[in-house]
Request: fold
Amino acid sequence: MQKKVYLVLSFLLIWFVVFRAIYVPLVHDEIATFYYYIQSFEYNPFLGAHADANNHILNSLLSSISYNLFGYFSFTLRLPNVLSFLLYLTVIWKIAQFFSQNLIRWMYILASLGMLYFIQFFSLSRGYGLSMAFMLTAFYFLLQLYKITSLKYLFFFAVALLLALLANLTLIPIGVLLLFTAIYLSLRKRNNTVNKGFIRFKTLLIYFVLSLSIAVLVFLSFRMKAEGALYYGNSKGFWTNTILSLLDLLFENDALLPQIILVVCFSLFVLLIFVVLKKQRISFFTGENGLFTFAVFGALTSIFLMHYLLGVNYPVDRVGLFLIPLFVGAFLFLLDQFTSAYRNIAFIALIFPIHFLIQANITHTSIWKNEYIPDTFFYRIQKDQSEDNYPATISGDALRIFNYNEKLYRNDGCGNALQFWTRDQFNTNNWTIKTKEHPAKYFDFIIAEKKWMHSILHLYDALSIAPRSNHILYKRKELPEKQKFSENYVEQASETTAEFNELIKLEIDSLGVSTLLVGMDLTMQSQEHPFKGRLVAQVKNRETNEVIRYEYIQLNWITKTILKEKPLRKTLLLSNLPSTEKLEVLVYIWNIERKNYTLYTSKLELFKVKDKNE
Reply:
């Protein structure tokens, strides 16, 4: 009967995960993974893949395969994680059988399956869902090794652990801990007559390969840290960075009540450990019931050691996700040692399924909800076209670029790419600008929270507001004047692999205005898909050779193919230029990977931009 109930519950959750994978919009990190790793099938950091914490190697590999088999859809990118949820469901049931009491067993099941914003990661193209499924699978086979010495279980333990690490390098300390636990179990049972011959060549080979693989991943982590690729998180403090961010991830709320509940739970956890140790002494930690507790303290110790000895940031939200199933397992395995009223504390686990039933949705993820840009914004912008037939210009802060440009990618490059400004251009205490003019002053449309619009709000009308993220689509009330002062037409019609292809180069003694618009009408084609090229417009000071402004459109971020039948009609707006200095304007194609392409025609126009009353 219990198994039938679990199957029904699993069936409902599978459909929930599938619907989320279909309907929840792609988030920033997923889109970045697609652009950098999945699209080009370049996932291996040892073979030149872009070094970044965003690359969850196993996810990038499996999602690349799914993309190449089934094409570009949110569901196909997320399919490997959806399938890993089946493994997660299986292993949760199997781990639950290690509990001796039905109450504790079902509290573990309900907690593990009822964490809404933990389950969300099985509907995303990230490595977190994969890593949790494989990590718990490794725990399951290790629990089996406590009971029976089996080469088969050891092999599956090693495979699951390695896959977990490949999906999420953050788990390396846990991996090392579990590896040494497995070795300890092998040594402890080496003299058992039943297990005579267990430590033999195949066993040693498994440990050697697993140890070597972990060592390679440790080397990769150190290399990435040296390159500044392990940037996520900070050092404000474990409570601020890790605990509060995990509460916000799980409940979309890090207010006082969840903090109090967590403190109470952890205090009870520590108290119960002392009670159990008084009865069982150290044998609790050396047996299967203490495995999760041992892992929790090992994980916490590694976090502090890596921070203080290696300068590693405290894990923030999803980076510390692994602490959640470890603590849930540890707390409930501890309560399973009691048959008294203590075991009723387990009912606190019902917080998770109750929250799930109240907050269940197929619209957003908890930690990326503030990045949401609705498709309606994109379609509204596409309705507008300037009088010179260029698509409307669009700007936003740096975190909007992937979310907006992915909409162009889905619509075959139709429209202008979003140009972004960076946070360092603003005083974040009061959101006033540091530059002479707001970096988006002359754009047709802006997608931003109101705080970014401090000095130019009077120039724009608010058209629409995005639910959850509160981003507003602004349209300029009155378009600025554009005065064309230069143009260049080029015909090449020959295939090239040149890294740089100059479209226009112009020396200006005095621009007279602070803003320049570059209009581009290009007919080009490449058989390379994706074609990693950029349309670049830069302005530099001729006397100092300093690059004052650099703007670009990454072609493989906005279109699947570069075809002659689909001319590229785009603009780039360069703001905050010195109006009286000697400048050089250079517009060119940057063929990043030096692939074959043909530029048939290129028409470039340069416009001075200013308000009519200036």
User: Anything to note?
Assistant: The radius of gyration is 28 Å. The longest strand covers residues 597-610.
